[in-house]
Design goal:
The chain is of the alpha/beta class. It is built from 15 helices and twelve strands. Strand 1 and strand 2 form a beta hairpin. It is globular and about 60 Å long.
Length: 354
């Protein structure tokens, strides 16, 4: 089906729903959701490519030398389109592959496991700066290193000594993720493919919002998102995870805390009494979460609504973000996705842990 046909189909469906008697009785934000979906769905003229290695998809419209501003608010000038890129984070690797720059990536971290083709790249060590092998990294003769966050500050200092260009990306919001993908598309000469990817992500986010758009503010499920268990950490509304919860129809019980990923007490968690507990799969289990002192008093535990989400998807601010948001929405409102649960019941998760 062509993009034009998809647009007409969405528009026709939304229009018929809006003028129907049933839709007329719905809140105004449902009508807005239909219009949003129609608008986002018509944002591109062609579907995104599924070519993971990016063959024959390089855009030649960007001219070099190219100067961009990275997450440090520093200007970085690239003399030519980079052909030997080292990625220092799994989310960056996924993003580079997704925009079509896979053939330009020569080095990744040990944790870079997606897409499967990324495993074929040379490894430069772990994600943390203490485990990055500078000797191995430099031996790859990169013409660009893409890093993220404060954890790579010391690596960047060393790379500056070798005069290796570094671009720092540090997406915290959903818009930051979109902007990072567009930036990586620009500096690798895959601008159009990056635009198509972002447009497809926005369409999927809009589709998920449409499924939960009927929920009134006062009826939203109260959610606790566990980022880490020892110490107990969560995500505030200042993070892309917090945004995913909100857009998926949930109420993040720690949304208003300062910062991004603060430590919280078990006492405060029990007092706020979430209806659903979500956590990424790495480093924890449902049995560990529900066995904490005081956990038995929490509604989420009483009602068996503790769900583990695929950590590689929900914990990486990259091209699978829209998929992660759908995972969150399925856990909060499984009935809107044609199932009684999100596929993460306690018994099923225990079986997966073996």
């Amino acid at each position: 089906m062509t993009q034009r046909a998809v647009c007409l189909r969405y528009f026709g469906f939304g229009l018929r729903a809006i003028i129907s008697t049933e839709m007329a009785e719905k809140p105004a934000h449902i009508v807005f959701a239909f219009v949003l979906l129609c608008f986002v769905g018509c944002g591109t003229t062609s579907p995104p490519t599924n070519n993971p290695r990016g063959e024959n998809s390089t855009n030649t419209t960007d001219s070099f030398p190219l100067t961009i501003t990275d997450a440090r608010n520093l200007e970085v000038t690239l003399q030519k389109c980079p052909s030997r890129i080292v990625s220092l984070a799994p989310s960056i690797t996924e993003s580079l592959f997704a925009v079509g720059a896979a053939d330009q990536v020569v080095g990744v971290t040990d944790q870079c496991n997606y897409p499967p083709e990324a495993k074929q790249c040379q490894k430069v060590g772990g994600f943390d700066w203490t485990s990055v092998s500078m000797e191995r990294l430099v031996s790859l003769k990169p013409d660009l290193v893409v890093a993220t966050g404060k954890q790579h500050s010391r690596v960047i200092e060393r790379l500056n000594q070798f005069r290796i260009p570094v671009v720092l990306v540090d997406p915290e919001s959903i818009q930051d993720v979109y902007d990072t993908l567009l930036l990586l598309g620009k500096i690798t000469s895959h601008r159009q493919q990056a635009k198509e990817l972002v447009a497809s992500m926005k369409r999927r986010v809009a589709e998920t919002r449409l499924r939960v758009g009927y929920i009134n503010k006062h009826d939203r499920v109260r959610v606790f998102y566990q980022v880490y268990d020892e110490p107990l950490m969560t995500a505030t509304g200042n993070t892309y995870i917090g945004e995913m919860i909100e857009l998926a129809g949930g109420e993040n019980i720690f949304a208003t805390l300062e910062g991004t990923y603060p430590t919280v007490s078990m006492e405060s968690l029990v007092a706020l009494n979430p209806e659903v507990i979500l956590a990424p799969t790495h480093g924890t289990s449902v049995s560990k979460i529900v066995s904490r002192p005081g956990a038995s008093h929490i509604d989420a535990v009483k009602d068996n609504r503790v769900h583990l989400l695929n950590a590689d998807i929900v914990s990486r601010p990259g091209p699978r973000l829209a998929e992660g948001m759908e995972q969150v929405a399925r856990a909060l409102y499984p009935e809107q996705f044609g199932s009684r649960d999100a596929g993460t019941k306690r018994e099923r998760v225990k079986g997966a842990d073996k």
